[in-house]
Amino acid sequence: MSRLLGDKWWVLLLNGLGAIAFGILAFAWPGATLIVLVTLFGVYCIVDGVTALMAAGARVGQEGKSWGWMLFIGIVSILAGVATFAWPGLTAVVLLTLIAIWAIVRGVLEITAAIQLRRSIDNEWMLVLAGVISVAFGLALLVWPGAGALALILWIAAFAIVHGVLLTMVAFKVRRLADAGIAS
């Protein structure tokens, strides 16, 4: 794992810089951020549904090719997209719940990776801290959803910036190890 990270340190860097950029933009336009997130999700669902229907259509009549599940996925995705535009407020709450679950799972995985890497890199505490912050952020979103969607966007922005800075620090640490021949 340390060899893979050593070769791909720049992926961590891009991830961190992307999170920082997203956080800054979310702070600058919190209302727009929520609207954009909900809108992008709706558009994504519809596009995903259409492409799934196209894939199902391409499989119809081909021997041994199942197309029923693709048809089902396409219909469900399109309905989710339509529902997103019909009930954007409910979609925002559901989307925030998904973000919370994502943050918790990601944090647990980062903590696990740090434990596995503790013999390969020094200061693995940065990855542990990134994971702990991610888990805490996800739990806060689940525990206090009534704080308001715009307030949660500001929390998301703060989380993204802090998380991005920590990942950027980890990326440069891994790069130094790779350059020294330790991680590669």
Q: How would you summarize what this structure contains?
A:
The chain is mainly alpha-helical and 184 residues long.
Give your account of this protein's structure:
The chain has 184 residues and is mainly α. It is built from seven helices and no strands. α3 packs antiparallel against α4, α5 packs antiparallel against α6 and α6 packs antiparallel against α7. The termini are close together. The model has no long low-confidence stretch (mean pLDDT 82).
Question: What is the fold's blueprint, element by element?
Answer:
Layout: H1 2-7, H2 9-28, H3 30-59, H4 68-86, H5 88-117, H6 125-143, H7 149-179
Helix pairs in contact: 2-3, 2-7, 3-4, 3-5, 3-7, 4-5, 5-6, 6-7
- Low-pLDDT stretches are none
Percent of residues in helical segments?
A: over 70%
Element-level helix/strand string: HHHHHHH
From the alpha-carbon coordinates, what is the Rg to the nearest angstrom? 20 Å
What is the overall pLDDT average?
Answer: 82
Structural class, by secondary structure, is mainly alpha
> What is the straight-line distance between the termini?
10 Å
Tally of DSSP helical segments: 7
Percentage of β-strand residues: under 5%
Net shape: globular
Number of strands: 0
The largest sheet is: none
